[in-house]
Specification:
The chain has 181 residues and is of the alpha+beta class. The protein contains 3 helices and 6 strands. It has 2 domains: 2-53, no CATH class; 80-179, Immunoglobulins (Immunoglobulin-like, Sandwich), CATH 2.60.40.10. Keywords: Signal.
Length: 181
């Protein structure tokens, strides 16, 4: 996407020098149409090949999923403070590293990992969740590895949870997306 924005910026810069402020919107529209025509004539990938036609993306068996908005935990939780998850890929193995944090020592603190696979339209949960936990802690980290099928996009959804006395609290996080090769 970076090459596209740089090209649009250059085209708009040239157009703006030639246009008066009253016709700015018309000139900008012309510039965007010209940029789209350039991209269509020269392929959708930029000069660096980092767009959807990159070698890795060309091996995908589905279109790439949209980026989803960031989520937050319920600010009214008494004990559960935060959670995080990150997915990394090595060959055909995805490893998710997750951390759950409480604002005090709790009875039980844990993470439930769910592998999700993009089917081209929605995220499907693959198999059952894997629950990991520890006791008498305020922070807990764990990882979970999965073998993937090449050509599909995957991510890991995690439920971060705590138990303190009779209080149970949970929040959900979603990892970055990876394309299995």
């Amino acid at each position: 996407m970076g090459w596209w924005m740089a090209m649009v910026g250059k085209v708009l810069g040239v157009i703006l020098k030639a246009c008066s402020m009253t016709s700015l919107v018309v000139c900008a529209s012309i510039g965007l149409v010209a940029g789209a025509a350039y991209a269509q004539e020269n392929g959708s990938a930029g000069p660096t090949g980092q767009e959807a036609t990159s070698p890795a993306a060309s091996q995908a068996l589905t279109l790439a999923p949209d980026v989803e908005p960031y989520s937050i935990f319920n600010p009214n939780h008494l004990y559960l403070d935060s959670g995080s998850v990150n997915a990394s890929l090595s060959g055909s193995t995805l490893t998710a590293l997750a951390t759950t944090s409480a604002n005090t020592t709790v009875d039980t603190i844990g993470i439930t990992f769910y592998l999700q696979k993009w089917n081209g339209t929605t995220w499907d949960t693959v198999g059952a969740g894997t629950m990991k936990s520890d006791t008498s802690k305020s922070t807990y980290s764990s990882n979970q590895s999965y073998s993937l099928t090449a050509g599909y996009y995957y991510r890991v959804q995690t439920t971060h949870w705590i138990i303190k006395g009779s209080v149970y609290e949970e929040g959900t996080r979603t990892s970055n997306t990876v394309l299995a090769s």
